[in-house]
User: Fold this.
Amino acid sequence: MHGAFDDRDLNGATRTWVRDDLVFGYYVHHHGSGHRVRFAAIASSTAVPVVALCELDLGRMPHGSVRLPSDVPAGDVVDPTASGGVHWAPIDPAASARARAVVDWIDDRRPSGVVVDVSCEMALLCRLAGRPTVVVRQHGDRDDAMHEMAHRSAIALLAPWPEVLESEATPAWVRERTAYVGFIGVPSDPARTSTSAAAQPRDVRAGPDDVVVLWGSGGGRLEQGDLHRLAQAARPGIVRCLGDFGHVAEPPPGVELGGYADDVDRELAHRPLVVASAGNNAVADAARAGCALVVIAQDRPFDEQRRHAEALDRAGLAAPVAAGADVRAWSRALGVARERAPRLAAVTDGEGSARAAAVVERAFGERAEPEPTDRTVATVDGDARVATDLVGGGSPRGGG
Assistant:
């Protein structure tokens, strides 16, 4: 396999990277759909073969995939945090089998690097196996020792959001290593589709005065009482719910249940207001469609969604509302969201996937070790030379 890519974004110089047998690995976390969406978006935005490493069956992949065994013990879970030193590393053969599958693949394919989305343990495993990493960042309070090791050991950090959503508490050294690529999303992504009849409406009625609720598979739910109060606040508009609402026995007046949508972009084509959890997928969907956005933060590790919702509110891009809010709070949130919709659209250009792919290409192209013959060449303004500069403007590496 022959891989080639250009770098024209960082400093204006044109670079053509050429590398034989180029392949990237991409670890895809199995919880929720956001990691799969980012993988699909980045993999489809690069000419370099990308191999998914995931516990889930991702279906037929253009360049293959590695189905990882679960690292959850079949019996008792013994010391899963190594006395508080890690997030998840139970003493069990299941963890050994998973690590072995990853290291065996690395040893066999010798990838130029591995994108880790997301797991601190996986990032360190790949780095200890001799491969450079690009670590995808998440929102939340990630100032613990494991996150610091994963972030310091990476060649680059990738934030799938615009820089305006960065937390004020993020250390300067993390910011310096981070490439803020903007929202990443795949229109009509197959990882989130369903073939059920309910997911294939004959017509899409939701317009600018209506509300579409997007609810993914990451956990948490919007209760029937919340939907009832939302519908009252949204009158005379309708509320169309897409996603998992199997717990709603009877939709309240003014509420439609649509199941999982095969085409989210089509559902948002007439720019209804979007209500969603504060996950990356839904925010990217709403922003890409030019919709106003109300977010309801769900419980996640490291307060991920709460910090994301706070950042969206602080930047004036969306309106937060709490679960259990009354009709007045819902009405206020809908109004604020509509006022802020132009700001959300202004920080969205649809190029996040391409920028993310470019970050990965530059990082792994520059850092891949040379073969006995000169197989990694950088052409800078017509002059061939070996690349030595760092992605992200020359941030210092090492223990820093």
The domain at 2-182+351-391 is CATH 3.40.50.2000 (Rossmann fold). Residues 1-18, 188-202, 368-400 have pLDDT under 50 and may be disordered.
